[in-house]
Amino acid sequence: GNLYGTTSQGGANSPEFGYDGTVFKLTPPSSAGGSWTESTIWSFGNGKDGSNPQAGVIMDQSGNLYGTTFLGDTVFSLTPPHTARGKWTGTIVWSFGSPPDGNSPSAGLIADPSGNFYGTTLRGGDPNVGRGTVFEISSVLTASPAKLNFGNVVALGTSKPKKVKLTNKGTIPAHISTVTATAPFTIASGGNTCSGEIVAPKKSCSFEVEFAPTTIGGATGSIDVTYNGTSPAVALAGNGIAKK
Predict the structure, then answer these.
(1) Do residues 49 and 74 make contact, with C-beta atoms less than 8 angstroms apart?
(2) What pairs with residue 210 in β-bridges?
(3) Are 103 and 125 in contact (CB under 8 A)?
């Protein structure tokens, strides 16, 4: 029942009528007819987080807030404290740069069911005309190792599993739906901590791949990770051999 919003001016780092701004929280009264309680959960203008937000914020399933700042050209996130008296933590999700990246985002963000963010910038598109952009921000998963070679495996048998680790190098959570592999490679039934999970920035998950050749000869394949981003490339190779 709490409400969250922004002010385009003011805040702890700002002189009167300065263009820094805040993110605020309004807590409903504990009884009917009571007064709402206002608190400032973030003051912009510390030199690293942008300033002058001109739109509201959105909230994800974990209670994190996301928004934009017109000055400083940022998309920011605010993570709630772990304790009742703790402080919110601010992070820059994206800093806009030179054309055609865009700058001066004056509108807020929208999110799709996978957790991708979309929005607009007022300027910084085509450098020749100074127009704005429509942008998308998504998570970025990297895989280690990038290659798996299972060597010789008896046809109609199954290799020992090999582990792949996925790390979120992006700035927003990776909402992973499925992890699949090209036949005759398969994702092992056990040890999969990625499928159906949400991987926070700088965090990791892992899964295991098996090689189950059905014919004699070399085989190649890859994995496919379905999430709010581009699947990392993992090359798979193995050789099916006859049973001695």
Answers:
(1) yes
(2) 186
(3) no
